[in-house]
Amino acid sequence: MELTLLTLLSLACLANGQGVGSFSQEVHLPLPMQSCTSSGCATQTTSVVLDSNWRWLHANNDYTNCYTGNTWNQQLCPNAQTCTANCALEGIDQGQWASTYGISVSGNSLRLNFVTPNSNGKNVGSRVYLMVSDTRYYMFQLKNREFAVTIDSSRLVCGLNGALYFVEMEADGGMASFPTNRAGAKYGTGYCDAQCPHDMKFISGQANSEGWVPSSSDPNSGSGRYGACCMEMDIWEASSISQAYTPHPCTVNRYTRCDGVQCGDNGGDRYRGVCDKDGCDFATYRQNQRNFYGPGGTVNSNQPVTVITQFLTTTGTDAGDLSEIRRIYIQNGQTIRNSPVNLPGITAYDSITNAFCTATKNLYGDTQDFTAKGGLKAMGDSLQRGHVLALSLWDDHYANMHWLDSNYPTNGNPATPGVARGTCPITGGKPADVEAQSPNAYVVFSNIRVGTIGSTYAGLDY
User: Fold this and answer.
1) Has 237 been annotated as catalytic?
2) 3-state SS, residue 413
3) Model-level pTM?
4) What is the average per-residue pLDDT within 386-415?
5) 25-54+94-452: which CATH number, 3.40.50.10860, 2.70.100.10, 3.40.50.300, 1.20.1630.10?
6) Which listed residue (26, 90, 232, 435) is catalytic?
7) Residue 456 and residue 435: Cα distance in Å, rounded?
């Protein structure tokens, strides 16, 4: 009887869709950025919002959890439609940012702590997005532009990834496209990326509870039937050991809920999905430049570094196609050019071009999925439509981050080009170990700038 009444009640208010809680007032942390031209830089009033997946999800006007640990409440969520109507995302007040999630800002600097003990146990990692208002994400249009940010990865050990990247999310978090989503960008909804993640609790305004399988290693996560796909441009994926920047094109040109083969889930369907999950990575250690980045390296990961990424076009104008993604570093007042590829039989490329991607993938024996999914032109078209900035800190329950900082595949010969990604041991990086041994790890992102080519770093005081 209880379940029947609950279901009837849910169907009666179905038009309300995914709700918003009323127990905490939503507060966004101010994080100003700058927009630059050749005439100088102007400060923009921007802020950050926490991703919806980290939030308390509970019954409408009730403290009962819709989701606990890594499982759904079957009374509130007997099916996706009912779950969507029954459940609300709660706001985050000023005090919860640091005490519950380990996130803080100081001026133009954002710090993400790894493990934060709190009244509910602990929070592990986080993901936030840059906002232009309380209800809309800041949309970056990066083709024929450059992006600059200063990053401190010095406290990130093997198995951790302090990531800054862009994804083709919708500016309002999907409210207009999916009317059952009443929370929107204000509550951090609408995430997608090129991995087509299945761990999102809500996709396209609907609960992703159907077919949900709790993770065997992550007490807070699981996997639903659907995935959330879109183009992704990784500006910085790094620990203090290794780093990479990587474009991931897709054959879809907007936020897309995937199902089955189109998700390209790991296994035989990986390259049949709509997105290039491998991407075309420029990872200096993988390209046999072993001393370029790391503790005491040319780019010294013991200290903050400013990272500039330029998105150059065929014509040098907004109308041209994306033809090159170039990287510049500034540290201790010195401008450092990106290291060239140091691999047998390969041109000494020092930036991402279509030719670089084809040549390195041929040498590594990788599938040419980057080209198949449209290469740099598709990536540039996506960047012109607009991307949302995501900043995160995470550990890896799938591959222990070995694809970034160790040998991958772990049974590969490290002397084979493309296998060695960093100095971390193949026995390391397990999330349980990293969380227990390095809970105080953190990453800091600061001084975010975007502008015309050459405008974001000239004259800065480093």
Assistant:
1) yes
2) coil
3) 0.95
4) 97
5) 2.70.100.10
6) 232
7) 36
